[in-house]
Amino acid sequence: MVSSLINANPVVYETKERRVRPAPGDLDEYAVEPIDQQEIFDHLRDIKDPEHPYSLEQLKVITEDAIEVDDKHNYVRVTFTPTVEHCSMATVIGLCLRVKLMRSLPSRYKVDIRVAPGTHATEAAVNKQLNDKERVAAALENPNLVDMVDECLAPSYA
């Protein structure tokens, strides 16, 4: 975690109850399974905030309503809301979201990560950085940044 906190006292919200997904009727291992908003949210909800010991769901950085899925066109958009307008961790949070989805979704999906409009002082720059393949690849070559992302993505058993 970061030593000097940008938002020392974030508001912590209740998490949504986990819903059990119905098992598919036929178990054809080669069939393309549809992906929906709930599945994307379930992948992302437990990512830890880089500054606090809370999940992005607990801080309402991500919500199920801020996820768009077009399974027919293999497209996912996640819009997240930083806890403060000048959050210095916005790009790290967005990178965590992108990496988690890169590791979880089939490669046919195009993933778009965005800061919610009007919620960050440098929204356009953050959005550009998070959706530029070369910048993302360069970030993932930085061992310190990869360690931070892996720490946020590590499962929590609390």
Write the layout of secondary structure elements.
Blueprint: H1 37-44, E1 67-70, E2 75-80, H2 90-104, E3 110-115, H3 123-130, H4 133-139, H5 143-153
Parallel strand pairs: 2-3
Antiparallel strand pairs: 1-2
Q: Which key features would you list for this structure?
A:
single chain; 158 residues; alpha+beta; 5 helices; 31% helix; globular
Straight-line distance between termini? 17 Å
Give the H and E element order: HEEHEHHH
Mean pLDDT: 88
- Number of DSSP E strands: 3
Structural class: alpha+beta
State the shape.
Answer: globular
Q: Please summarize the sheet with the most strands.
A: 3 strands, mixed
Low-confidence stretches: none
- Indicate the percent of residues in helices: 25-40%
Strand order of the largest sheet: 1-2-3
β-sheet strand percentage: 5-15%
Using only CA atoms, what is the Rg? 16 Å
Number of helices: 5
In short:
This protein has helices spanning 37-44, 90-104, 123-130, 133-139, 143-153, and strands at 67-70, 75-80, 110-115. 31% of the residues lie in helices and 10% in strands. The radius of gyration is 16 Å and the shape is globular.
Describe this structure in words.
With 158 residues, this protein is an alpha+beta fold. 31% of the residues lie in helices and 10% in strands. It has five helices and three strands; from the N terminus they run αββαβααα. It has helices spanning 37-44, 90-104, 123-130, 133-139, 143-153, and strands at residues 67-70, 75-80, 110-115. Strands 1-2-3 form a three-stranded mixed β-sheet. The protein starts with 36 loop residues before the first helix and ends in a 5-residue tail after the last helix.
